[in-house]
Amino acid sequence: MSQLEERIAAVREQIAAAARAAGRDPSEILLVAATKTRSDETIRQAVAAGITACGENRVQELLPHLEAGAYGDAQVHFIGHLQRNKVRQVVGRVDLIQSVDSEELLRLIDLQAAKLGIVQDILLEVNIAGEASKSGVAPEQAMELALKTAAYPAVRLRGLMCIPPVSEISGKNRVFFAEMRHIFVDIMKKTGDNRGINWLSMGMSDDFTDAIAEGANLVRIGTALFGPRG
């Protein structure tokens, strides 16, 4: 077994243990491999080892990987900040855009998806800790933006995503994850959609077990799978 295969197996076991501890079915948790800075070959190896979804932060890395067929049959998610002038390069090329944080971005995604004759799945990114350095809609504005998605027929809201503050203290981010869960449940109730809106994306290499404990069903993991970036 390669080192990558061992790391994937270890992360999957941690996910399963966290899910069982929370009284949840491990199969409900989607592992998205965050492939920022990784090579085509590394991505192919990860997919061959059972990774079923890959997440890219940068359009300039996403497009060459797509052209090379590096993702194979895996889902592709865009998980980084999406600039408005890059919308046309991403819509229709990925299964899920996880980082929508404004009505203007919604409008542009809808416009491009309509041109392509598709419906683009998205998540709303919430700046759960109000950090000036991060993108995302403010928590108190998430409901308003979620309700506005109904006005854009070529966009389908599938849930929420967040990136909490970096913390070296285990458990410190659970308060943010718990708040995200409350927002997520409220949006499902208010929109009357508890089937289409079904992804709560939160948790990365350092805190994904805490995120699962608070309700995450999609975790974005890079370093724990691939090691430090070169």
- Write down the secondary-structure element order: HEHEHEHEHEHEHEHEH
Instruction: Please report the first level of CATH classification, the CATH class.
Output: Alpha Beta
- Report, as a whole number of angstroms, the end-to-end distance: 22 Å
So what's the overall shape? Answer: globular
For the record, the CATH architecture stands as: Alpha-Beta Barrel
Radius of gyration: 17 Å
Mean pLDDT: 95
- Largest pleated sheet: 8 strands, parallel
Helical content stands at 25-40%
Q: Supply the number of helical segments.
A: 9
Please give the number of β-strands: 8
Reading side by side through the largest sheet, how are the strands ordered? 7-6-5-4-3-2-1-8
- Kindly estimate the percentage of residues that lie in beta strands according to DSSP: 15-25%
- Going by helix content, strand content and strand pairing, the class is alpha/beta
Stretches where pLDDT is under 50 for at least 5 consecutive residues are none
| CATH homology group | Alanine racemase
User: How many structural domains does the protein architecture include?
Assistant: 1
Q: What fold name goes in the CATH topology slot? A: TIM Barrel
Short description:
With 230 residues, the chain is α/β, with parallel strands linked by helices. 40% of the residues lie in helices and 17% in strands.
Features:
230 residues, alpha/beta, TIM Barrel, eight-stranded parallel beta sheet, 9 helices, 40% helix
What report would you give on this structure?
This protein has 230 residues and is of the alpha/beta class. The chain has one domain (3-224): TIM Barrel. Helices cover 40% and strands 17% of the residues. It is built from 9 helices and 8 strands. An 8-stranded parallel β-sheet has the order 7-6-5-4-3-2-1-8. The two termini are 22 Å apart. The model has no long low-confidence stretch (mean pLDDT 95).
